[in-house]
């Protein structure tokens, strides 16, 4: 089973046409290479967090998604 | 802790919470509403696997820190219109100071650190709300 990719908040708009499913195993470099240069530059921002299988990663560069897991890309949350 | 997908009236959950904490010295509460003005609608999106678990963790930390008898937090998701409730926080404690402070602390964290993304619809379409520096400054008050 592939890894599914979910783009949250404003990233969902910017990710139009970006892949929502990628082959496992998937690491950070693999993800950046698959989403295209423009989106990759945004994902590299320190304020964008990544969750894998329901857990927010302390260091997104350590991403290692396995078969069937979901990777969520979390932009900075909105203020008041 | 609850994520609510349709409009809710804060009075009802607050009444039940008060009934459940009859022995507490006091209950403080806060209701956040959609502001009137430029925006015709506000949409809050979340990510199911982490938003509610992170809210629960925040509530447990807050309840311990202020030695509360109980803590209630309801947060809307989906599309809301001006005047509708977005969030309800209530804290029950033996003394008022802890109840006030816990409510304030919980709100500052929900605003700046909970996994919600907001956009509002104005005359010219939908606009995402960016993080505000003030929200981070508000949260930093509790780090001492």
Explain what you see:
The complex is a heterodimer of chains A (80) and B (144). Chain A has 80 residues and is of the alpha+beta class. Chain A is built from 3 helices and 7 strands. The N and C termini of chain A lie far apart (39 Å). The mean pLDDT of chain B is 95. Chain B is globular, with a radius of gyration of 15 Å. The longest helix of chain B is centred in the middle third of the chain and has 18 residues, at 48-65. The chains are: A alpha+beta (80), B alpha+beta (144). The A-B interface holds A 6, 8-10, 13, 47, 51, 54-56, 70, 72, 74-80 and B 32, 45, 47, 49-50, 53-54, 111-119, 128-132, 134-135.
Topology:
The complex is a heterodimer of chains A (80) and B (144).
Chain A lengths: L2 E5 L2 H5 L6 E2 L3 E2 H8 L1 H7 L5 E4 L2 E2 L7 E2 L4 E5 L6
Parallel strand pairs in A: 1-7
Antiparallel strand pairs in A: 1-2, 3-6, 4-5, 4-7
Chain B lengths: L1 E3 L6 H10 L5 E8 L7 E6 L1 H18 L4 E7 L1 E3 L4 E9 L2 H18 L2 E7 L2 E4 L4 H8 L4
Parallel strand pairs in B: 1-4
Antiparallel strand pairs in B: 2-6, 3-5, 3-7, 4-6, 7-8
Helix pairs in contact in B: 2-3, 3-4
Across the major sheet of chain A, the strand order is 2-1-7-4-5
The H/E string of chain B reads EHEEHEEEHEEH
Approximately what portion of the residues of chain B adopt beta-strand conformation?
25-35%
N to C succession of SSEs of chain A: EHEEHHEEEE
Tell me the number of helical segments of chain A per DSSP (H or I, 4 or more residues long). 3
How can the largest sheet of chain B be summarized?
A: 4 strands, mixed
Task: Give a nutshell description of this structure.
By secondary structure, chain A is α+β, with helices and mostly antiparallel strands. Helices cover 25% and strands 28% of the residues of chain A.
